[in-house]
Amino acid sequence: RPLRAELALQAAARGVPVLHVPGRALDTLCRGRPHQGVCLEAAPLPFRSLRDAEEPRPGDGESGGRQLLWLVLEHIQDPMNLGALLRSAYFLGVDRVVATHGNSCPLTPTVSKASAGAMEVFDVYSTDDLQGFLKAKRAEGWEVVGTASRPEDVEGVPVISCSEFRWDKPLIVVIGSEGEGLSLESQLQCQQVLAIPPGRALHPGLDSLNVSVAAGILLHSICSQKRRQGD
């Protein structure tokens, strides 16, 4: 109750109307999902268009002189996974997240809650031509790396352990969908594919990680190098 009273005071101070309603009304508004006794009604939050975004150059802009790191999401469909991916990307210092526009989860309230609010403070961009986008970034001097839970399924692209990768230029990490992983077309735009080596012989059917967990491990492995341009 004290926390809800404080939230109500903050909302009122910002001119947001506060209504006290029965718990079942909140259940309906949240479609049965947990709400901790508070629900905020807000306008939809769309993806930002890359066409309208100012393109930072390697070494400046949003990175503040650090090496740039972008996360690209291909056909992530589960809102809990998308929220967890955004939360990890924000926490670990990713400069920009780009998602495919089609066949992907939109920025829903469930995504926002799963992101612990990261979705509200961290712009998420979209592209309707992923392969064209990756090809253009490679031409600008960026390195594009993909991810694979099953290295044996990757064809024509070198596969290395994430611990062997060295971050020495502006980087795009591409994460594939929950069920299919990276499409072949996206794999072929990658210069390398990163894999997470398992710690034991795996039982069939338990041979991969949840996509958001895998992305967190890969991003931490990369960001822990703390390489800066010019090193």
From TrEMBL:
<dbReference type="GO" id="GO:0016435">
    <property type="term" value="F:rRNA (guanine) methyltransferase activity"/>
</dbReference>
<keyword id="KW-0698">rRNA processing</keyword>
<dbReference type="InterPro" id="IPR047182">
    <property type="entry name" value="MRM1"/>
</dbReference>
<dbReference type="InterPro" id="IPR029028">
    <property type="entry name" value="Alpha/beta_knot_MTases"/>
</dbReference>
<dbReference type="InterPro" id="IPR029026">
    <property type="entry name" value="tRNA_m1G_MTases_N"/>
</dbReference>
<keyword id="KW-0489">Methyltransferase</keyword>
<keyword id="KW-0949">S-adenosyl-L-methionine</keyword>
<dbReference type="GO" id="GO:0003723">
    <property type="term" value="F:RNA binding"/>
</dbReference>
<dbReference type="Pfam" id="PF00588">
    <property type="entry name" value="SpoU_methylase"/>
</dbReference>
<dbReference type="Pfam" id="PF08032">
    <property type="entry name" value="SpoU_sub_bind"/>
</dbReference>
<feature type="domain" description="tRNA/rRNA methyltransferase SpoU type">
    <location>
        <begin position="70"/>
        <end position="220"/>
    </location>
</feature>
<keyword id="KW-0809">Transit peptide</keyword>
<keyword id="KW-0808">Transferase</keyword>
<dbReference type="InterPro" id="IPR013123">
    <property type="entry name" value="SpoU_subst-bd"/>
</dbReference>
<protein>
    <recommendedName>
        <fullName>rRNA methyltransferase 1, mitochondrial</fullName>
    </recommendedName>
</protein>
<keyword id="KW-0496">Mitochondrion</keyword>
<feature type="domain" description="RNA 2-O ribose methyltransferase substrate binding">
    <location>
        <begin position="6"/>
        <end position="46"/>
    </location>
</feature>
<dbReference type="InterPro" id="IPR029064">
    <property type="entry name" value="Ribosomal_eL30-like_sf"/>
</dbReference>
<dbReference type="InterPro" id="IPR001537">
    <property type="entry name" value="SpoU_MeTrfase"/>
</dbReference>
<dbReference type="InterPro" id="IPR047261">
    <property type="entry name" value="MRM1_MeTrfase_dom"/>
</dbReference>
<comment type="similarity">
    <text>Belongs to the class IV-like SAM-binding methyltransferase superfamily. RNA methyltransferase TrmH family.</text>
</comment>
<dbReference type="GO" id="GO:0005739">
    <property type="term" value="C:mitochondrion"/>
</dbReference>
